[in-house]
Amino acid sequence: MNTIKFISKLTDYQLKDDRNSVIQSPFIEPSLTNINFENKTFLIEFVMSIINAEDQKVRISEGSGRMHFNSQNIETIVNFNGNEMEVEQALMSGWAYNIAEVLSWGKPSFQNVFDYVNVTANGLVFKDGPGKQLAIDLILNTVMIEGEPLGMHFELEII
Fold it and tell me: Which of 46, 92, 106, 118 is the Cys-Cys partner for 74 at CB 3.0 to 4.6 Å?
């Protein structure tokens, strides 16, 4: 299984700090996970980092985001044959995943999120299957980094 990280689409990335700092080749990794089975919550923290001149990873505090899962399941809504439908129902009805047909992004519940990802000692891993691209696109479109969706400036790299 391969772990994930998100790499900058451009070499230079301008932070939205008070100095409009520019950093080189930032990347974002899911670095912290907190699973609470009693409360049925799962938190993933996404952290921006760079590699400095001494070849050390340096965390960029402005560039972090979170995704929190709990007992609430908010369905992703898609357009299937001209009808609005929950994504799971559409997939079971023969719909082939197409991001262009996503009308609104949801968020799986604590129970459902583990249908899409595994947490390993090496990091977060997407499970293979029909929902893999959906899970990737969900993160790219709903995790906010400096007020913008992660996928606006970063793309997935499986390592």
Answer: 106
